[in-house]
Amino acid sequence: MITAEVDYPLLDIFWTTLVFFGWFLWIWLLIRVYGDVFRRRDIGAGAKTGWVVLTIFLPLIGCFAYLITQGRSMAERAEREAAQKRQALEDHVRTVAAESAGEDQTAKVRSLLESGAITQQEYERMSLKVSG
What we know:
Layout: H1 10-39, H2 45-57, H3 59-115, H4 120-131
Helix pairs in contact: 1-2, 1-3, 2-3, 3-4
């Protein structure tokens, strides 16, 4: 009977983990580089193609070259995009809050009219104030 003996010492486990981690980091780096390359509006299709070809045929050198030459502007573009998204969210929240406040005040004025607490003229005057 032939028995297969598994010889996988602890050092091999560490090496495999290190290789897997490095491969994962390289994939993540490549995704970041491609994302930045294709979002850029300041370079043309030829430059984008050049970066893609470089990162395909010389993957580590291409990614590191892009990070060295474009790293600072890459961070600035990411910050600018985050600020634009934050501003858009704040604008949307303000719009929704203003609409909600206006609707609440209109409903209160209407309930005052229906309860008889104010006259039709007062209702119209208050409605004009609420609507702007």
